[in-house]
Amino acid sequence: MTVKRNVRKALRRLLCSRRGTAEIIGSVMFLLIMMFFFTNVFLWHDRATREMDSVLSEKINSPISIQVVSMNVTKPDMRLKVTNNGGVEVVLSRLWIITDGEHNYADLETGQEIRVAAGAAEELYLSKPTLQHPEFSVEGQTIYYAPDVGVLVTFKILTTRGNMAACSSTPYE
Amino acid sequence: MRKLFRSRRAVSPVVSTVLMILVVIIGMSLLFDFFVNYTHDFQVGSGSAVLESMTVEDISFTSGTQAKVWVYNVGKVSFKIASVYVDDQPAILDRPNFEIFPGKHGMITIDFAFSQSPYRTFKIVTARGSAFEGRYS
Q: What is the pLDDT of residues A65-96, one digit of tens each?
């Protein structure tokens, strides 16, 4: 009975006493302000990481391959086939043409978008350059380039997601 | 009225309270400014390193001591190429801190005494500290 009374007395004294209240309120406010700032940084970092995770997963899910369909210079029938082996659509960015130590590229992004749907394939055509179309220029899916017969050419394709594929072939007559 | 203005009994507590409030406001303003700048610097600087990504699309060796490196920015932020290492040795860049924007291609020329090895390890380091490494022939 006495113990109960003493506990009740102590509790009442504790609740009625206002000593130290300012320190507690100050500490709580300080912690709240700190949490406000660090939460912002954490949320921003979390969003940035998620954004890059989605970019990476799209890149992983859109591998491509390139193969030479035909390299007949005289006919002429020069075609390349780009296949999207992934589950996400890709946009072609550049076709690198490497021959005899020379590295040149055709920009497939200028004024157009060559899209390859998931699991689909698109053909790129090689045509002899003209006055209107200088070497390595692009119109639609035609790249103006005349390879030398018997000289090995390496084609490297780059997508806007950063995936690459390459193949080599020797043009023939 | 005259009595009120002549009395100096409460002047000291009022002055001290005003001074204390001023000190607290100035201190909190400085702290706030520091935190805002710190957060902004982190987001723009090293914090954005997670948003960087690149693909080395082509490397062509123009001579035994020079190579052209084509880089494609597939990340969400622009980056500056701070240094390039070939087989863990630093190479000389023609354009240090060359900036490449998202979705854009960029070319840098590096000077380095290349070995006869058919494959070389290239490590490209950005100004934010991200490193992208690959083996190229």
A: 999 998 888 887 889 999 999 999 999 999 99
Overall average pLDDT of the A135-161 stretch: 90
- Residue A96 pairs in a beta bridge with A105, A156
B41 backbone dihedrals φ, ψ, rounded to 5°: -60, -40
Question: Assign residue A49 a region: left if phi > 0, alpha if psi is -120 to 50, beta otherwise?
Answer: alpha
The reported pTM is 0.78
Q: Which amino acid is at B39?
A: T
Q: Do A48 and B105 touch (CB under 8 A)?
A: no
Interface of chain A toward chain B, CB-CB under 8 angstroms = 37, 40-41, 44-45, 48-49, 51-52, 55-56, 59, 93-94, 96, 98, 101, 103, 105, 156, 158, 160-164
- For chain A, the average pLDDT equals 89
A66 touches A154 (CB < 8 A): no
Examine the pLDDT at B116 and tell me if it is beyond 80: no
